[in-house]
Amino acid sequence: MASELEALLVDGRLQALFQPIVDGVTRRPIGFEALARGPVGSALHLPDALFAAAHRTGLCLDLEQACITAALRDFAALQIEGRLFLNVLPQTLLNWREFAGWLQQRLSILELDPHNLVVEITEHGLTDDQLQLIEAVAPLRALGCDIALDDLGAGASGLKTWSAVRPDYVKVDRYFVSGIEHDPVRAEILRSVVDMARAIGCRVVAEGVENAEQCAVALELGVDHVQGYLLGRPQAVPRLDMAGLAALDGVVCAVSGDCAEHLATPVPDVADHTPVGQVVELFRMHPDCAALAVTTAGQPIGVVRRDELLILLSKPLHPEIYNRKPVSAVMDANAVQIDARARLDQVSRLVTGQSAAGRRDDFIIIRHGSYLGMGRMIDLLRQITAQQIQAARHSNPLTGLPGNREIESHLGQWLARRRPFVACHLDLDHFKVFNDTYGYARGDQVLMHVAGILTRTVRQRVDFVGHVGGDDFVFLLRSQDWLLRLMSALEDLAASLGSFYDSEHRDAGRIRGRDRDGEERDFALLSVSVAVVEIGGGALTAELVAERLRRAKKAAKAQSGYSCVVASADGRMVDLPGWDPRRLQGPARGASSADSARIRILASG
């Protein structure tokens, strides 16, 4: 095996295959990952066999060099448009100090632009010495290459390396993508990775996407790019799988309606080599401009501010000293950079998280690593204030939950995405007589309590809770464990609503009051009726969903005590598995066995 590997390296018989990495918005390749292969039919064809043999024979560095050479050679020969994602082991960067210089020579010979190269550092075998890794990637960044952290989540040092190296891309290990359409935990982990990436201006690639459902979930969670067999297999001449792309028609990428992009002012940038004297002239030509971004090949590396620059140049001899120097000599290299898709709350935390001494009014906004515009603290405050006013205008004044307009908007958006979710309508039973007896102040306390339980039960930024008005609430659930969450909410309500009564009513399990016809009679204590409609991925209108909810609610209200009717179009009527209605019985709600809670599946036609 050793001699076979040595011969393979000497003869240059390694081949590179290329797999597309597709942009979630444009559905076009942004680049291709190079994957090494040995001769077809050989025992060393697959990369695992190649690197295992190299490890046994001490030829790891030789093999790495041969793989990179083959990838660059084949990529240049095919004249592929896009970026080349090149895998490099951490040990190679740490042990081969001349790597950047060697790579620059190869790129120059093949006439490849280093700015189109992304060096992927795999998480496998990462060193615990992050400073060494930072020093190792610095020459690559100086060369113009971007850095990617590969297989995030596959090892133990990923987050530490992410924080230290600040890569331009992070590729999430296929483990967290496989089965994500059925596993809410993996989906929540991927969502957290996206949130972190937005905060530091890093792009997220979901690896191992093998079906349309996985791809749709990943894009809806906000990943920037996707890679996997669905979109194209590794091939000597890369091409997209058009059938896989067609399966994504109608899938919407998650982009916040209120994000940093809306704060970007298109202030021109200045190249890092621009003389300070020219920058002064730019400020004089643009008197409203307080700061300029300093860039290298379109990527920001700092900020130069009018006031600080003029103060510097006002000192004796300083104009003569600095006017001919490049602006990079006087810029602030620690300026905050914000990803264009970061949410406003993330922007606020990043900007205000600076120390008081280093805090500035301006910050840089980037898109895909390139300069987009300048942001200002005052505009951020205005946007957040407008956002809060807008939310308050369309929210229920008591609970603060979104009102009818937002409910209709969310329902329409979710239906348009054609992704499965569950629509629920919760209504309090006997709430009028409770209000008549105890007054509106205590009634408002009950509504606030119900709103709090629903808000705590759902998964934030995945599910949605709205308050129609009065004692009617609507909530939309995308969480795969929606049934458990619904059961938990019902149990919490059953255990707590009785505490809002005085002891005499609570002990009696009933309350005397007048019905809507003015007749006096006994009423049971507060309970809830919930209507549920399961929505698949097909085409449905908001009107049809509302009609199914109305029918299910009517059936739920016809039952005594706590009830939850799940409307289904298949005509079944069975108890939901795993649900024991006796859990809602007890003195807290004053129910008899005849009033036991029922959850049924009801045909809604």
Our measurement of the CA-to-CA distance between the termini, rounded to an integer number of angstroms, reads 68 Å
* Oligomeric state of the chains in view: single chain
The CATH class assignment of the largest domain is Alpha Beta
Query: Using DSSP, what is the number of strands?
Result: 22
- Uncertain runs: 571-577, 585-605
Mean pLDDT: 85
**Biggest β-sheet: count, sense, barrel?**
8 strands, mixed, barrel
Number of helices: 21
Share of helix, binned: 25-40%
Estimate nothing, just give the exact number of structural domains. Answer: 3
Strand order of the largest sheet: 1-2-3-4-5-6-7-8
CATH superfamily of the largest domain: EAL domain
Strand content: 15-25%
**Structural class designation:** alpha/beta
The fold-level CATH name of the largest domain is TIM Barrel
Gyration radius, rounded: 31 Å
Q: What spatial form do the alpha-carbon principal axes imply?
A: globular
Task: Assign the CATH architecture of the largest domain.
Answer: Alpha-Beta Barrel
List the helices and strands and how they pair.
Blueprint: H1 2-11, E1 15-23, E2 29-37, H2 47-57, H3 60-78, E3 83-88, H4 90-95, H5 99-110, E4 117-122, H6 130-143, E5 146-152, H7 158-165, E6 169-172, H8 184-200, E7 203-206, H9 212-220, E8 225-226, H10 242-246, E9 270-271, H11 276-285, E10 291-296, E11 299-305, H12 306-313, H13 318-322, E12 337-339, H14 344-352, E13 362-367, E14 370-376, H15 377-393, H16 404-417, E15 421-429, H17 431-438, H18 440-457, E16 464-469, E17 472-477, H19 482-496, H20 503-508, E18 510-514, E19 520-524, E20 527-535, H21 542-557, E21 563-568, E22 598-603
Parallel strand pairs: 2-3, 3-4, 4-5, 5-6, 6-7, 7-8, 9-10, 12-13, 20-21, 21-22
Antiparallel strand pairs: 1-2, 1-8, 10-11, 13-14, 15-17, 15-20, 16-17, 18-19
